[in-house]
Amino acid sequence: MAPSAAQRIVIENCAIATVDAGDTEYASGHLVLAGNRIESVGAGRAPEGLQNVVRRIDASGHLATPGLVNTHHHFYQWITRGLATDHNLFNWLVALYPTWARIDEQMTYVAAQGSLAMMARGGVTTAMDHHYVFPHGSGDLSGSIIRAAAETGVRFTLARGSMDRSVKDGGLPPDFAVETLEGALAATEETVLRHHDASFDAMTQVAVAPCSPFSVSTELLKQGAELARRLGVRLHTHGSETVEEEKFCHELFGMGPTDYFESTGWLGEDVWMAHCVHMNDSDIAAFARTKTGVAHCPSSNARLAAGIARVPDMLRSGVPVGLGVDGTASNESGELHTELRNALLINRLGAHREAALNARQALRLGTHGGAQVLGRADQIGSLEPGKLADVVLWRMDTLAHASIADPVTALVFGAAAPVTASFVNGEQIVENGRLLTVDEDTIARTTREEAQRLARITAQA
After folding, report:
1. Beta strand extents in 18-67 (DSSP E only)
2. Cβ(29)–Cβ(14) below 8 Å
3. Helix (H, G, I), strand (E, B) or coil at 433
4. Burial letters 78-100, b for 16+ CB under 10 A, else e
5. What residues are paired with 31 via a beta bridge?
6. Which residue of 100, 151, 203, 461 is 20 to 30 Å from 377, comparing CA positions?
7. Mind listing the pLDDT tens digit for each residue in 59-96?
8. pTM for the full model?
9. How far apart are CA 187 and CA 175, in angstroms?
């Protein structure tokens, strides 16, 4: 808990969706932030006699929720948006890998700034990046991404990715864009040792994250899992995204993706996978049995025509599920709050129809569910005393939402709600929809410049 001498911020007169175990909500309540912790949350006004109150916020007309938690992304893709817009996954990768293989440290840093800024101004307080493209001689890409996250002020998990199966090995990436098995493992270990913080209020954590079954060797998966468990960090990869991946695994390994992952040590409560669209009953049961998590990316799955993930079945089976933006070359908006709505709507096109997801389940996916799959549910993902002060105030009294009586329904079913304030670790990073930590206009200019530079380099090659 926060020390009694901590400076306090009092937020009052707002609707509150705590997303705690009982889905406790208050039609009009208060939050007290003490230092970087939530000290109290409840109905009515804040307690009288609080010491060291440095700010009081009258949040009338607002909904307070936990900060959104993004569980899958590829920041570098911010500078390759709007390309290959009519492709399925494999053809999209073939079209874009020659461009991605030419990124450098400056491009990666600027792209990370753009990705982070877009998410943060839309209510994301914990971000994640799965970076797996490390062209030879491209510089300190991991360090540049972590630096951008620190400057933006969000809590951050870097999933240090890797690829060692290139075109010459039957994979998709160009030969010069992959690492050796030994090089990938060594660089990943160095990144964990240099940057991972295991403390309760950590702002930066690192996961071990070979890219996918069709871009890494079996040995990289096996040794990557051993490395992660030796270092005490989590594991992340892509899994069961498309029918083509399913076919690839059967042809190359003689089994489907889930069985292949289990054979390499890649199921467990310390693992989460992106997409998981093509999962049969046996696959879902294996994920539920092992508590393997899923990053559901509804917009990207639709953009690449991958299919509809069986999220309702996963949830009913006890599989931890969070939401992901995915890379912005397959989700050009790059906003997680729109994924609340898309997750609900797209899953209602599946077998369960109108019973698939409701508004509160969608909000839980984007908050507590994301915290679960990142291994941080004890610290973030709900508004409870003792948890970290990651809080978003959504304005619900404008034209877009004012006539919807239930604020959670308004947030999920309605238009993207304005963010009046977003706090991370007790520090405000957004005010009235604008970032306080970085200059959005500068980022817009530099991302455009780096996108143009990358396009020129690719064209010349």
Report:
1. 25-34, 37-43, 53-58, 62-66
2. yes
3. coil
4. bbbbeebeebebbebbeebbebb
5. 11, 41
6. 151
7. 999 999 999 999 999 999 999 999 999 999 989 998 99
8. 0.97
9. 18
